[in-house]
Amino acid sequence: MPRNVADHVAATAAAAMLAELETWPKPGLVSHVDSGSHADMDAGTFKASTMAITPFYGHLTIAGAAGSGMDKLRAIGVAAERAMLAATGGVNTHRGAIFSLGLLCAAAGATWSGTARAGSHWHANVLGATVRQRWGQAILRGPIPLHSHGTNALRRFGAGGARAQAAAGFPHALDVGLPALRLGRALAPGDPEAARVQSFFALLASMDDTNLLYRGGAAGLRFAQEQAAGFLRQGGIEQAQWRERAAAVHRAFIARSLSPGGCADLLAITLFLDALDTRS
User: Fold this and answer.
1) Helix crossing, 95-115 with 124-141: angle to 10°?
2) Is residue 58 classed as helix, strand or coil in its secondary structure?
3) Would you give the DSSP letter of residue 176?
4) Closest by CA position to 97, among listed 181, 193, 15
5) CB of 126 within 8 A of CB of 115?
6) pLDDT in tens, 152-204
7) Which residue, 84, 115, 149, 203, is the most exposed by fewest CB within 10 angstroms?
8) CA distances to 82, 210, 229 from 90, in Å
9) How far apart are CA 125 and CA 146, in angstroms?
């Protein structure tokens, strides 16, 4: 695989992460406006982390093109986590994104010679299916972090989290995030942030986010999903004063220390898939 193709995929992943960061209101989460429900990180932390881990997305793309198995991908991911923690002073900003976007970068490498020989575009559904078919079983069989928020939620509530999403080929991004993003563009042409907010709220309304379960239990998850569904029922970004309505939800999440980090990762995944899938 030419290095410029891997660099393009890595840059697309980084751009998706930064676009997710630059989305507001995004209830409970860090953005360029505020730190949401987090006292140990801000937008600067996320930008430093993004710069540190971007090269590893290129390594994962090349590994995918070489037909690497999950052990090789996992080793690159662990190295990316070390770079992240060094850049943030030990704060976990992007572990979920390294895992999920890293797998999709590997899938882009694996499918480059077929669906995207010139590196012009990849089919979003093909990338998701490639992750599921090539690495899905290894993802489910792989080591489970003992003290991660997702593991704790799995133990307490039986929620699948990022591992289940990845093993299934990221169905929430494909079936919920992407359609909502494209609806948002139709509702608010010329306002890409509005489209991202629409996509985020759709993901939040439908996803059993393990970060929400960890912070707020089943009641916290139910509150979050109801708030998101209410925003969408009222018209989403099509309603008058939608930013004020979304900001009110954001403040309610902060008051309850809720942070849907899994949905943030799914928004970044959605943006990455959309950016690579640029068929006319």
Assistant:
1) 130
2) helix
3) I
4) 15
5) yes
6) 545 444 445 788 899 999 999 999 999 999 999 999 999 999 999 999 999 99
7) 115
8) 9, 21, 35
9) 32
